[in-house]
Amino acid sequence: MAEAVLTVLLENLNSMIQKEFGLVWGVSKEMEKLTSILSTICAVLEDAEERQLRDKAIKNWLRKLKDVSEELDDILNECGMEASQMEYKRQKHRTTQMVQPFVSCFNPINTFSRLKIAKKLKGISYRLDEIAKERLKFHLHELVRDERSSQIRDIRQTSSIVDQQNVYGREEDKDRIVEFLVDCNSSNCRDLSVYPIVGMGGMGKTTLAQLVFNDERVSRHFDAKIWVCVSEDFDVKRLTKAIIESATGRACDALDTDPLQKRLQNLLEWKKFVLVLDDVWNEDQEQWERLRNVLSCGLSGSSIVVTTRLKKVASIMGTIPMHQLSILSEDDCWLLFKQRAFGDESEERPNLVKIGKKIVQKCGGVPLAAKTLGSLMHFERDEKEWLFVMESRLWNLQQDEISILPALRLSYFHLPIEFRRCFAYCAIFPKNFIIFKERLIHLWIANDLISPKGNMDVEDIGNKICNELYWRSFFQDVMMDEFGNLQSFKMHDLVHDLAQSIMEDECGVIDIDNPNNFSQRVRHLTCTYSDRPFGMLSTSCKIESLRTLMLLSPRRYWQVANEFANCFHFHSLRAFVANDQRLPPTSISFLMSNLKHLRYLNISNTSIKVLPESICSLQSLLTLDVTYCLSLEKLPEHLSCLRSLRHLYIKGCILLHQMPPNIGKLTCLRTLSCFIVNSRSGRHVDELGSLNLCGELQIFQLEKVSSPMEAKNSNLARKMNLKSLCLSWSHNESSDESSQEKNHELVLEALEAPPTLRILEIVKYKGRHFPHWLSNALIFENVVRICLDGCKNCLELPTALGKLPLLRHLVIFRMDLLRYVDYGEPGRGSFLSLKSLTIFYLANLEGLSRLEERTEIFPGLTDLLIGDCSKLTLRHCLQSINVLNVRGCNEELLKSLSNLQTLTSLEISYNDDLVFFPHGVLQNFSTSLKRLQILGFKKLQHLHSDMLIGLSALEELHIISCHELEHFPKGIFRGLNMLKTMEIEDCSGLKSFPADSFEDLAGLENLQLCGSPELEVHSFPHSLQHLSSLKDLKLSGRDIIQLSRYPHKNAPKLTALPEALQHLPSLQYLTISQYPNLGVLPEWLGNLTSLNSLSIKFCPKLASLPTSVQQLTNLQVLEISRCPKLEQRCEKDSGEDWHKIAHIPHVRVWNSHRGQQ
């Protein structure tokens, strides 16, 4: 990391020298000397970074270097702030009419600052010079990348030989690849196919390729099998020679490139070959194409298998989607660990096995980690040594024996320097933490980890780095937004260990509830807690060099320590995150007065009501995030003084009714999530005119725009970086409706959106016609989502909407006069790209299109959500519809559903009239429907026995809140062989099931019967025992809805568990809840030997557990809550039933008086 820090310092110094800052301030010699020293040190830093792993003296030297570098960074930051302040005063002096003394660096105040900074720079220069001299004794030298690549290639050479007996959990992956290779041959593929296998270091990519290479099916189908280890050096001549040598089994003469390539083509011509290129790092597409052209000479069906850590390599080389290698299961990891740790021992020591299984959890499913940790324990039989490894952090174990971190470090050292420092910073997040890309980029920027490049915004550079780290397998579990952009991700535990091993004690995550000592060298600190947090921070007050502080809590805490303000003396702090906290305004004020270097402030989702004016003193602040501060009423009046501010997030602040004045003066602003128009001076919508905004913008209270010219001066049409725009009016009880309509139309016409827009929302617009710019399909060809809400006076949608080439999502709410969505003409397709349509509260909507019935419309529509459209029927052909959700449905609409023969999911809800479910509604869904939900049919009493007959694909059935439904007809569940989930909830009148209910449900895995208090023991048929695949069963006398609405009504009648439950061999999860009359649990409960989790809640009469609970050896979790008698008997160590449950690893007893034990 020292290399990364110094690189940034050099860039900052050079930037200041170019701007002649040193000349103006009289420190040019010091700056040039510092630049020279830093350049000298930087030349050998890569060698030092690698050697510090083996040489403690070099590690200490790097620490000293980094400490001094951070002090220099603070000084340069102060220089930047002083220069910015002087420039601002100069500009202010030029524009004012008042007589003021000339502001220059030679006035007394600035002279004092200049001398002070010069003295600091001289001191830092001396210390750096001493450190630079000290480097000589380590004999560090500048690393040449080609030499380094050669060293790595020699170390990491692989071959095609594999010990198949010691490979676990990859059979399915192997078969999938082998089948592809064989099928590709049998189907006579003409082009050379390339199958990429991708995964982080240590995942077993090479092992999998070896398994494929040695499979008999592959050997039979290919004339030639070739294995080449590529590594970092993708030299086409070298690889050509290596392929020849592997194919012939003989050394190849050192020829020029052309004769080598001709010799290779002669070897492969008229042969069907498979070539494995192992461990590829090359990202140069031209290099790959040169090699591929040589290899495109074999018979059709020839294939290449590529293993790589980089998704980018897979995308360049692959001809099919990449095969992302998943982690091993814990069981497979244990087998691998056990084989290495115990070898051929016939007897395993139970105490070591128990510890070993916990050690395996450290591996995170990575085979190399399991192998290396197992090997480490092979010669250790002392339980203390095993416990030491179990409790140690991975990077603290002997690195010569643990090969997983060196394997991962290879990926790290392959990164560009800028990427390295950004990746290592991610150690600040706890393991398994969801990291939001946008927040991470802001934290990087705040800590100077991203360097500007030309005219490219630093945020765009950060976005590129995030994408690259994902493509290089450093991030996983990614979430994408609707445009396919990276939104959030996690790091694998071992990748987190890698980041932590690089940052060491400079980055820490501490649990304040169980604090451990942390180093005073910590620079980036995350505090997690579940109680009052700030007392512990008094310890970290002494860490004056802290750069990042994040407070994380699983939920909000409303009792906050008064010492909050006294805890913050972090003068070098760049980033402070305290979202989801209750922060007193006095504490925020104190915080602001002490943090002159602060660049990122995130207090989103907090209870703060007013942001103090002291925030305006943070001249370095780049990002202020108060998103969803629901109590926030006011922003600082002088917010426009924050001249460096680039991002202001205020979305979801529902009590905020006006903006601070003169937002337009924030010329650096790139993000303004919302703007609230006001008629007062400095708060007009034209304040947006000069701002180059990006991302999302919501504009509220547009009724307060005084004129179309004011709206036009907002310059929305020129904001080419805007991706999402919401234009919203508020409810205004104006007496002159026609004048209001005209005003809305003129203002909206003037608020022309930019052509780059992806999302457009128009809310509570009262004009009769939409603007002309919305009718130009050529301008808005990039729009993906449109929402029109509350446009009550509009008769129809703009015809251009149907012609937008990329429009995938259309949402329409509360358009009272709309009769049709599509007013298109016959023979002319419209809404060709539309995937989802949401229509709610359209009182006069008659159909989706005015074209004739049975006509095919919306050819790509897959999801349709309908709510309270009382006149609507579905009479047209929707050939692609998969998901239909109808709320507030009438009988006519239900009957028209039979036209939709491709449905896979159907939800129908909220009908207050139907007593009988209409016959034949579901008859056309026999092979397509997989999910059915019927919700809120208040008067529904009867279902036809053949209602579900023929739904052979049905996997989920949910019947909820049908209060008058007392019985299911005989045979209603017949033939539902594919059903996996059945939920009957809040059907308060249900009294019984027919005898044959569960006979055909052998595949059912999840059954929930909740909120049917009339059910008794005899209500459950013996056919329950046919549920041989049932894994999860939840029985609850009352559900959450009934508890909240009718807490004292309909006490459940069940007094004992149905006998048939004892015959459920696969049951793993059992919940019994809300049965106040249940007096005893049966002894046969011990027959449920597969049970993994048992939860018993709100059963006050239960007095003890059956003795047979001791037979449940697979039970991992027992939860008891609101069962007073049972709670007492199950108290740890002292309860009368404790001996029955002491063997269960996780026992959670919620004591009604004392809380959880």
Automatic annotation (TrEMBL):
One of its GO terms (molecular function) is ATP binding. Transmembrane segments: none annotated. Residues 686-815 form the R13L1/DRL21-like LRR repeat region domain. The keyword ATP-binding applies. This is Disease resistance protein RGA3. Residues 5-92 form the Disease resistance N-terminal domain. Keywords: ATP-binding, Leucine-rich repeat, Nucleotide-binding, Plant defense, Repeat. GO terms for biological process: defense response; response to other organism. It comes from Rhamnella rubrinervis. It comes from the Eukaryota. Residues 428-499 form the Disease resistance protein winged helix domain. The keyword Repeat applies. Residues 976-1154 form the Disease resistance R13L4/SHOC-2-like LRR domain. InterPro entries: Apaf_helical, LRR_dom_sf, LRR_R13L1-DRL21, LRR_R13L4/SHOC2-like, NB-ARC, P-loop_NTPase, RX-like_CC, Rx_N. PANTHER family: NB-ARC DOMAIN DISEASE RESISTANCE PROTEIN, PLANT BROAD-SPECTRUM MILDEW RESISTANCE PROTEIN RPW8. Residues 171-345 form the NB-ARC domain.
